[in-house]
Amino acid sequence: MSMPVIMYHHVLKEDSFVATSIDNFQKQMEFISRHYKTLRSDEFCAYLKGEKSYNNGVVITFDDGWRDNLELAYPILKQYNLRAILFVVTGWVDEASKHSYPFVMHKHNQAKQIIKTRPNEVILNYTQLENMQDVFDIHSHTHFHRDDYFGKISLEEELVLSKERLKAKLNINTTHLCWPRGVYTQDDIALAKKIGYNVMYTTKRGINKVGQFDQIKRLAVKKDDKWLKKQLFIFKHDIIGGIYAKLKP
Ligand SMILES: [Zn+2]
Description:
The protein is of the alpha/beta class and 249 residues long. It has a single domain, classed as Alpha-Beta Barrel (TIM Barrel). It contains eleven helices and ten strands. Strands 1, 4, 5, 6, 7 and 10 form a six-stranded parallel beta sheet that branches. Helix 1 packs parallel to helix 3 (68-79), helix 1 (22-35) packs across helix 10 and helix 8 (155-170) runs parallel beside helix 9. 43% of the residues are buried. Zinc ion (ZN) binds at residues 63-64, 141, 145, 180.
């Protein structure tokens, strides 16, 4: 059996680009709580190493560290006693930690603009991340997301700084890295390994098998619980999932 890993960005009032509606998210989590076990990041590692197997395991991931993940997704995950992985952009968290703002729901493109002016309105700060760890395992999505909102740095700095900030501010020793926009080369993977990352997450669909650490495949969640039910069925089966990933990119 392969391990399905699903990917969210925002949970918002309505479905839109990289956003799942609160209503659909609630239904999806209700479905998962009845039929699947959500893995913590260390359990996922144990699976990848072949040390443990999980019947109907699934890994839930969130990218970027949006504030709506706390305000809207966290209570639902907690309600169903589920776990998820949150990949944060530590340079954005640094900025969001300078001034507090009330939460305002923004669609993705608007939220990206607000990162530069009122970061904590849309991005989680360190205090908030500290308090979310009963549900979320927090890992790296680089330091600046390879965007130039707060300056341009090398990939090596993106990877080193992110690791350092998570250690310094949250005492997290992360070895999990999610590539911004799913963009990376084989050289990038080698560099990340040298810096101390060993589980790397892509935006490619497909199956995840024991022993395959450095290009974790993920399924971008769309639509509702019925759609998710079908997708999870496909991507937990090695052969069906493998064929499906090739047929429908
Ligand atoms: Zn991202």
